[in-house]
Design goal:
Number of domains: 2
Radius of gyration: 22 Å
Order of helices and strands: HHHHHEHEHEEEEEHHEHEHEEE
Number of helices: 11
Number of strands: 12
Low-confidence stretches: none
Structural class: alpha+beta
CATH superfamily of the largest domain: Endonuclease/exonuclease/phosphatase
Strand order of the largest sheet: 3-4-2-1-12-11
Shape: globular
Amino acid sequence: MKIIKKIFRIFIYILNALALIALLLAAFSDHVSPFSGVFFSYLGLFFPFILLFNLAMFFVWLFIRQWKLAVVNFLVFLICADSIHTYFPIHSKTKEIPEDCIKLLTYNVMRFGYPFSKKDESKQILQYIRDTDAGIVCIQEFGISKSFSKVFTENDVNMALDKYPYHKIENYNIALANEQYGIAIYSKFPILSVKKVPYESSDNGSIVCELDIRGKRVTLIDNHLESNKLTKEERDNYYQMTQDPDSRSLDAFTGMMTKRLTPAYQQRALQAQLISKIIEDNKNPYIIVCGDFNDTPISYSRHKIKGNLHDAFVDSGCGLGITYNRYRFLFRIDYILHSDNIKAYNCTVGNLRSSDHFPVWCYLQLK
């Protein structure tokens, strides 16, 4: 009996050590390009689950009064504190927003909910954007049609967003009959120039805009980085697996995810490197980078683009900030980043479900 207890104790110690190593690797996995080791990309994806397991072990050590082991776990948490804060920031709302702030909204509208929503339901997206009354609206998956009655026309959108005198739409590379499908910006401030970022992707893209905000030149980069290209059937299979997991479905799903995610990680890495170079070469004093990165807070793409920028949600938001709302893929993948001379207030994830993404907005003060 004593031997069994000893073996079990050794097993728990080894398990705890492996979990701590996994946490350390996951916390810093965003520094490694998926071309160098895609394994680290998957570690970053599972960071919150690894963290939860280690927290459970920490409380076990406290409960059974294994103080030395608890201290070791706590020290690892301190080393990983920046990554933990990035994933789960805690800030209270600022009640008095400075008057000189601008409000920015970024929103992947999923072609205004088509084909999953009726047109009347899709109008909720336009109404939400209008009611938010942001000074700048960055839209991904902006889909409008010239002839199909179930899809908004450009006139429908412009009439609903008539408070925005300046707007620009850039199509993705994919060619769709009678439809514009791409990335858009609607602004109350003059748009001085718009340039499409030249990277290869059929139905994703980024644009670089120059705005005049009360006499200040601001570079705004609106992004929709490479999607994981999961089919509806694959997403349904994942949802079913989360309800009734078994070894066969888990093996099948793991193989499918590897096949889909690995090339997507690598494609986003190339796109992120290009966006990072544009940020580095930026000549304007102010820069804002936002949109749907299709990657988690602990990912190479987000880390590469962020560089020395600030994450508005990390600086002024609270909680996990989950922005994708379908099939139980519960991650924050939509971001607002900004230069050091901009201060963010009250970065908030909205709760409208007409798209597969939640809207994200915040107040930005140009110092």
